[in-house]
Amino acid sequence: QILDGFRGEITQIPPKYSAIQKNGQRLYQLARKGIDVDIPERQVVIQRLELTDLGDETLSLSVSCSKGTYIRSLVRDIGEAIGCGAHVEMLRRTGVDPFIHPDMLTLDEVVKLAEEGRLEERLLAVDEALVNMASLDISEEQSTRLKNGLRVHLSENPSDEFELVRVYDHVGTFIGI
């Protein structure tokens, strides 16, 4: 039941040992100097939070969450809700959208595939790796200008969310970001 309160959109205070900047300095730098600062809350989304194992003094969780979520803070807050405190003992990232665990390779697997001359089979095209980035199709004239290092003025904004976009030429070939 306690975990139910941590699913969906939640408010979270990042840990003081994080890379977030406050007054031009990283929080972890300030924390190491013993400087205490107010850390602003942030909204994050926990899409999935499952208890996968329960021991006498430990528990294991499986979490699917939005960008910007601090798992250490989530665990800290769950511990506070339980009334015993908690910390992360082990953290394993199994995916970063669109890259998911079954498709990932270990470094040893990459080396072996490279030695066998088969690495290309498993590599993603650059634009496939950026599927979460907005895309834009441009004209043949714009494509020629861009390929020659010239500016291309766009009359449309393909996305309100992204400053960077995947650019495709007039025949659908990815040409850059």
Q: What is the CA–CA distance across the termini?
A: 45 Å
- Shape designation: extended
Strand content: 15-25%
Largest sheet: 3 strands, antiparallel
Question: Any guess at the CATH architecture of the largest domain?
Answer: 2-Layer Sandwich
Number of strands: 10
Enzyme class: isomerase
Keywords: Isomerase, tRNA processing
Pfam family, one: TruB-C_2
Domain tRNA pseudouridylate synthase B C-terminal: 72-130
Task: Walk me through this protein's architecture.
- This protein is an alpha+beta fold.
- It has 3 domains: about 5-90, 2-Layer Sandwich (Pseudouridine synthase); about 100-125, no CATH class; about 125-175, no CATH class.
- The protein has helices at about 25-30, 70-80, 105-115, 125-130, 140-145; strands spanning about 10, 20, 25, 40-55, 60-65, 95, 100, 135, 165-170, 175.
- It has a 3-stranded antiparallel beta sheet.
- Strand 9 (about 165-170) and strand 10 form a beta hairpin.
- The longest helix has 12 residues, at about 70-80.
- The radius of gyration is 22 Å and the shape is extended.
- The N and C termini lie far apart (about 45 Å).
Write the topology of this structure:
Layout: E1 8-12, E2 21-22, E3 25-26, H1 27-32, E4 42-54, E5 59-65, H2 71-82, E6 95-96, E7 99-100, H3 107-115, H4 126-129, E8 135-137, H5 140-147, E9 166-168, E10 174-176
Parallel strand pairs: 8-9
Antiparallel strand pairs: 1-4, 2-3, 4-5, 6-7, 9-10
InterPro entries: PsdUridine_synth_cat_dom_sf, PsdUridine_synth_N, tRNA_psdUridine_synth_TruB, tRNA_sdUridine_synth_fam1_C, TruB_C
Organism: Cyprideis torosa
Enzyme class: isomerase
